[in-house]
Amino acid sequence: MKKSVKILTGILGFIILIPGLAKFREPFKTFIYKHLDYIGFPFPEVMQYVVKFGEVGVGLALLFLAFKEAGLTKKVRGRVFYISNIAIIVMMIVAIYTHLHPAVPAEILPLESKPPVMPIVYIILTVLNVFLYKKSTINYEK
């Protein structure tokens, strides 16, 4: 991976991992449950753990790619990269929906902000990361 992709992958891993870890502690532990409950997700008791472990897993996978990608085959590296980035986009689409849902009060959202600025920025960074990765893999194959 090119240096720019490694850096952006590491940043994305970090900004997904830290909130994922924070969701295991109060008040975020309660907030994530309330988000899921307010927007009508089925089984919010179980889904809160899917969200927490999903964010931690994706964050760790991206950090691993940023620092130890040389130890992986090209095929495995590509799969982990794309699956992790797609997972971020899916998570952020749900986050945008949560921010815009009328039943979710701003007090339980990140930065207590209703406009979904953070999720949109994360999606932009993720799309940029995939674009740069794709561009760098095409250049290496020529």
From TrEMBL:
It comes from the Bacteria. Keywords: Membrane, Transmembrane, Transmembrane helix. The chain crosses the membrane at residues 46-67, 79-97, 117-133. This is Uncharacterized protein. It comes from Patiriisocius marinistellae.
